[in-house]
Amino acid sequence: MKISQLTNFLSFPAQNIEFDKFLTEHEITERPLDKPTPIAWLNRKDLGVSMIFYPARDYKKWWGPVGEDGEMIFSTLQIYGENNDSGFAEYRDQLPYGLTFASTLQEARAIFGEPTLDHLLGPENRVYLWYGYQGYSLALCFFPESNGISFLSIEKNKKIPPQKRNIDF
């Protein structure tokens, strides 16, 4: 399951003919449907991959046009490193943009420039977001003391760029 293949399906429902075929080939048989819960996940924890889906009405509100009509739209791809607290195995294929899970914040800044924003995730990990990098928003969660990347998140740019806030979680 390659990142470059998955990002091609961002903004599409899992029921899209090609996306459905891709998911089936990777042993994912569940398809998210619009329910009272506003977000759905398709996970392959053994491969270190999580796909996040939003209802079409929310996707259109926040991201803009969908690639194809459907109930739940693929909005965000998360790829996990070996060290994470979510129970995912390490993604074993190549990361995009020359990153590795051992990449440091300084290396990420050399690739993407200064982050659009950052915030704490839990007591120690910090997430950095780059908005508008080649049409995508990229988030990297770094471990403290330059111990590598916990996860990488990729989504299409939202309609409104994020604003810097002084909020830490």
Could you characterize the architecture of this molecule?
By secondary structure, this protein is α+β, with helices and mostly antiparallel strands. It is built from four helices and seven strands. It has a seven-stranded antiparallel β-sheet with strand order 1-2-3-7-6-5-4. The longest helix has 9 residues. The chain is globular and about 40 Å long. The mean pLDDT is 89.
Following the backbone from N to C, one meets helices and strands in this order, namely HHEEHEHEEEE
Strand content: 25-35%
What is the straight-line distance between the termini?
Answer: 31 Å
Mean pLDDT: 89
Number of helices: 4
Strand order, biggest sheet? 1-2-3-7-6-5-4
The largest β sheet comes out as:
7 strands, antiparallel
Shape: globular
What key phrases describe this protein's structure?
alpha+beta; 4 helices; 7 strands; 169 residues; 7-stranded antiparallel beta sheet
